[in-house]
Design brief:
Strand content: under 5%
Structural class: mainly alpha
Strand order of the largest sheet: 1-2
Radius of gyration: 22 Å
Number of domains: 1
Largest sheet: 2 strands, antiparallel
Low-confidence stretches: 47-61
Number of helices: 8
Shape: globular
Helix content: over 70%
């Protein structure tokens, strides 16, 4: 089947290897910045700072230090969230590209309902009669769970309180609770926000790779 032969010739796995290398470099940078954060924190006594006059020159210097600390605290989640959303979009784009190429050759209809992943699954199953069993595939079902995280980050700024679908919130909360070592929630009065830990993006990269290998293997009759 052309879809799988085409996928096997793409430099998909090279891109995933590059993403892993890039991620390792950034995680090392984050670790070094967290160390700096700890060093900066030890130089400040929050109670004493409150007593200072806001026009005091020393207050300005300390305010800059506080700003740097907050920046370092928030950066890891911002970076990992951005990389994850990019990786998810990459997965969708390569699969969609293959489906569209086949659609052009076969002159058939492409599904127009559901999410991008639902359309891809529908086209592969119904139009190309793929033997890949989406319903029983652990990788596909895991990708669908990661899709909940991607949707919340992209459409609700990572805040579960901004999601409108109760079922989606329940399923997302369950996924996060089951994977607390790589993703968690930070709650306050105004928000319940996703915080992505080290290991989350690495896990997703491995998942993408395994899924694509299986997809290609099934297409080859493996």
């Amino acid at each position: 089947m052309k879809l799988y032969l085409s996928l096997s010739t793409l430099n998909v796995f090279g891109v995933l290897d590059f993403a892993k290398s890039y991620l390792r470099d950034i995680e090392q940078f984050i670790e070094s910045q967290i160390k700096k954060n700890e060093d900066l924190s030890r130089t400040l006594n929050p109670f004493e700072q409150v007593q200072k006059n806001i026009f005091d020159e020393e207050f300005d210097k300390d305010a800059e230090v506080y700003y740097k600390i907050e920046l370092i605290k928030n950066y890891p989640n911002l970076f990992r969230s951005s990389l994850f959303v990019s990786l998810f979009s990459y997965l969708e784009s390569i699969l969609m590209k293959e489906c569209k190429q086949n659609q052009f050759l076969l002159q058939d209809e492409f599904p127009n309902k559901g999410s991008t992943l639902d359309k891809i699954k529908g086209y592969l199953s119904e139009n190309l009669h793929s033997n890949y069993n989406f319903s029983t595939s652990r990788e596909w079902n895991e990708i669908k769970k990661y899709q909940l995280v991607r949707h919340c980050l992209a459409h609700a700024d990572g805040n579960l309180k901004l999601l409108k679908d109760d079922k989606e919130i329940k399923n997302l909360s369950k996924f996060i609770a089951e994977n607390n070592e790589i993703i968690t929630l930070v709650e306050n009065d105004e928000s319940v926000e996703i915080f992505i830990k080290e290991g989350f993006c690495e896990s997703f990269i491995e998942l993408i790779g395994t899924f694509l290998v299986d997809l290609i293997d099934v297409g080859r009759g493996g």
